[in-house]
Amino acid sequence: MTKRKKEKSGGTDELSNPTEGMEKRIDDNKKKWKNMAVRTLWTFVMIGGFFAILAAGHSMVVILVVIIQTLVYKEVIALAHVPSKEKKLPWFKTLNWYFLVSTNYFLYGESIIYYFKKAVLVDAFILPLATHHRFISFTLYCIGFVLFVANLKKGHYKFQFTQFAWTHMTLLIVVCQSHFIVNNIFEGLILFLLPVSLVICNDIFAYICGFFWGKTPLIKLSPKKTREGFVGAWICTVIFGFFWGSLLMRWNYMICPVSKDLTATAWSGMTCEPNPVFISQKYVLSPWLSGLLKRLIFTDIRTIWIAPFQWHVLVMSCFASLIAPFGGFFASGVKRAFNIKDFGQSIPGHGGITDRMDCQFLMGLFSYIYYQSFIKTTSLSVGTVLYSIINSLKPSEQLELLDSLQQYLIGQGLVEEGKVACVSTA
Amino acid sequence: MTKRKKEKSGGTDELSNPTEGMEKRIDDNKKKWKNMAVRTLWTFVMIGGFFAILAAGHSMVVILVVIIQTLVYKEVIALAHVPSKEKKLPWFKTLNWYFLVSTNYFLYGESIIYYFKKAVLVDAFILPLATHHRFISFTLYCIGFVLFVANLKKGHYKFQFTQFAWTHMTLLIVVCQSHFIVNNIFEGLILFLLPVSLVICNDIFAYICGFFWGKTPLIKLSPKKTREGFVGAWICTVIFGFFWGSLLMRWNYMICPVSKDLTATAWSGMTCEPNPVFISQKYVLSPWLSGLLKRLIFTDIRTIWIAPFQWHVLVMSCFASLIAPFGGFFASGVKRAFNIKDFGQSIPGHGGITDRMDCQFLMGLFSYIYYQSFIKTTSLSVGTVLYSIINSLKPSEQLELLDSLQQYLIGQGLVEEGKVACVSTA
């Protein structure tokens, strides 16, 4: 604190020189302060807005992600435009937006069909859209593809194909990845909020640790990043994640998946049977470990309660600290390749929205795949199985299944043989 | 025939001039003839090889597709290489191959898990690979991504990012699309052979019709293509497809999906319960239509037998004639953008393999999606349902399901009530 003050007063000292540049200096300083104020104001606006949206329910969070994704797509696509050439190719910008819309139609359709199966299957208007969803999406893509080829213009081929490739890469890296973030929201808000927090936390601590201990440069792409900051942020993120995760997982609104109830908010008292990973288990510490703790923190701890999810958070923290920053380096590289400082001016004082989101996409995809692979419990319930039996099997097959299931349960000793023999004769 | 002979003899006449260029002419002509011979020879080698592979079983066809896909990837990726710059970036070529391998690991893994579920789930060695397949694939991709970012070199950024985008577009357009061709093979060889034939047939008839009636140019990209050729080929492909489809669908080896039996060949007598779309239905012609036919072809036809699949083939023929050629135009555009005549020299006398495959990828994806959306019957069988019940439901849920199913079947009048009441008490 004192150090900073000194620097500031040092700055004021210089200003006291009654030279010609003085007024300019004051102007510059005013601008700097104004910029800082704007930046701070918008930081609070963003934080406040974020929590308000978070509390307003899953659908609001999804809308937020869609808006952010669209802005990032716009900023990244704009990079590859060469304005002078673009003027002669009026369809080109339209086509980029067309590809965004049709990709989103495909991806969000897939999510909605998967997560809201019953609602979709009941609605007579949506049903045909759902059953032929992939065909409709493919048709949309084909129209875009044909329009692209039909609009190829002599002398612009290389430019147009490069743009086409760039659009496809952006669709893959930004749009598809943010789609998985939306799936995370449906699986439970904690899967959205925790990864986002881990990345932000890692960003902040990389800055702080780098500021205090940073000496060795980390990567040529970002000269300001240091190894000390990288490692320090890793440690801090792991500790933060462990406690932040254990805090969030106590709240049903965070851990309950969305089933049909998109109207839930933070105050509506969402309930569900929690995934067992969120339930704390008792661990008995080995004598030497509790002895060590006693010496270190003067407390006699013999047992601790930890939920399996907290171990999973450790993995996610490590990913947020070690791999996700490469998303940021990638974005820095893109900025350097196109000789720009920021991706845009979407957020006053902060630069483009892409500058704030660069690591979030990779983290979101990781969280999704990690969750699907290691955390998610089977999504089969008695209801869904019965539903598919009734809808997809013929009556004769239903009877056959009933018979087989009984035979199996008899074999398992769960049903008494004599009592069920009567059914197979029906 | 005479016309061609005349042209040839005209060529020989010119050669009789005793000028200096004569020997060169003879040399040129020899080369031309040798080239023609090589091209013809290789055309027959390809056709013969193709049918031999087709008869050798599904797995051989899959291997063929994988080889072709790899060659196309190699040719397309090579386009964006700038050799002089590439030398300084030794990891770059390796990374491109790494991305191909990891994408294929992901895609073929998905197919294998989907089509050979039971075999995979039983094998203790493959099982962990299957249950965490997506996570492993993502890890592989992340390694590639991190290596790419870590290998970014100052002064090459723009080149490297363009290459990265190009690689991703190729992965999407070539590798992902050919993956769906593999899925088609597993669903039944007809879904592979028919689209491939339709595209080839359309190519040939576009050439023939263009040769005889071609006047109006079709698209600036390919000056040799004409509207007359395009429309003529469309009509011919529709007629060819209708009959070729009705011929192929009579053969079990063509229409049976692969379930577990990858050892089947054309002679092993594959059997299955055919999809109802392959079974011919009787259509009674309206009097005026049969009257029309009588006047036109002097035959009294009152009823015809047509399988629903033949109508589907009409749609596929139209796609092969109207949309798939845009894949070819796209490839022409790429060649023009990079100022090359052919994509490579993979097939002696034919140019690169990409030149022969350009329309096949889009057609393969279309066939897959069309099949999934409109032709495929439900894949649920009593066995798979029972399998998922036993593996994914707890014993208490299994009992609950048994009870619910019985209640449902009683409600439907398929099971008598008094006889089953005994089970729910078990």
From TrEMBL, chains A, B:
It catalyses: a 1,2-diacyl-sn-glycero-3-phosphate + CTP + H(+) = a CDP-1,2-diacyl-sn-glycerol + diphosphate. InterPro entries: PC_trans, PC_Trfase_euk. Residues 1-23 are annotated as: Disordered. It is an enzyme of class 2 (transferase). It is a multi-pass membrane protein. GO terms for cellular component: endoplasmic reticulum membrane. GO terms for biological process: CDP-diacylglycerol biosynthetic process. One of its GO terms (molecular function) is phosphatidate cytidylyltransferase activity. Its EC number is 2.7.7.41. The chain crosses the membrane at residues 36-55, 61-83, 95-115, 135-152, 164-182, 188-209, 230-251, 309-331. Keywords: Lipid biosynthesis, Lipid metabolism, Membrane, Nucleotidyltransferase, Phospholipid biosynthesis, Phospholipid metabolism, Transferase, Transmembrane, Transmembrane helix. Pathway: Phospholipid metabolism; CDP-diacylglycerol biosynthesis; CDP-diacylglycerol from sn-glycerol 3-phosphate: step 3/3; Lipid metabolism. It holds the Pfam family CTP_transf_1. This is Phosphatidate cytidylyltransferase. It comes from Gigaspora margarita. The lineage of its organism: Eukaryota, Fungi, Fungi incertae sedis, Mucoromycota, Glomeromycotina.
